[in-house]
Amino acid sequence: MNGVLIVENKHKKSKRTCFTARPEIYRILSLRDRFRLGIFSSATSPTVNKGLASILGSIQQEARENRLAEDIIPNQISDIFYVGFCRIHCIDASTVQNLPPTDPPRKPWSTLKPLKPFGLPLESILLIDNEASKGMPGEEANMLVVPTWEDDVKKGTSALKELVRQLLKVQRGNDLRQYSQRISRAVFRRHQSSQRDGGGNDGAEGEGKGRRTKEKGREKSGKGNDEDTG
């Protein structure tokens, strides 16, 4: 979530945390016809709830500014995300043996975001994150890594637009893992191109929280046959 959909900042004096949703975040609404969206964050539940409130408010505001139909605009966060995972669902990276090294190296408090233990069919899931090291061993193909978004109201739109565009091109019923690296490369190319052009800078790859993308297309583990994004 942080670095992908929002950025979290703490005021030095008050020590209060504030959240800023990335510009044009309302575009993720177009994914709901094809995917179920969910949140998988390594933050605590109270922090996630505050971040989700910021996301909802920004989506509602942008949707109305862009004159979307009222029946499309979400009234509550569950109208956007069907599930939310937080730190209690993560695994302490230090407890997992034989993890490959990462660049930059994992921090002592680093966590991993497992998918399989929750009964999620791996062929139908993409974990969208700005830190590749969040993936569990054996679930690397489910990672769709995107550039980190940093707080700049004038920037941050190019990678998000490309991500949405690429996801909407995914063919129904296919194994989503075959698309992860292809989409990631396309998003980074678009991001780098925007940097050269002097606009649409979405930051650099780093730490953050991701979104989980589950294809709504297959009957498995009690899931229906339509596409999901989480």
Q: Order of SSEs, N→C? A: EEEHEEEEEHHE
- Give the overall form: globular
- Which class do the helix and strand fractions yield? alpha/beta
Low-confidence stretches: 200-230
The total strand number stands at 9
Major beta sheet, strand line-up: 4-3-9-7-8
Sheet-strand content, in percent, reads: 15-25%
Computed over alpha carbons, the radius of gyration is: 17 Å
Overall mean pLDDT score? 84
Oligomeric status = single chain
Separate helix tally: 3
Q: How many strands, what sense, and barrel or not for the largest sheet?
A: 5 strands, mixed
**Residue share in helices?**
10-25%
Short description:
The chain is an alpha/beta fold and 230 residues long. The protein contains 3 helices and 9 strands.
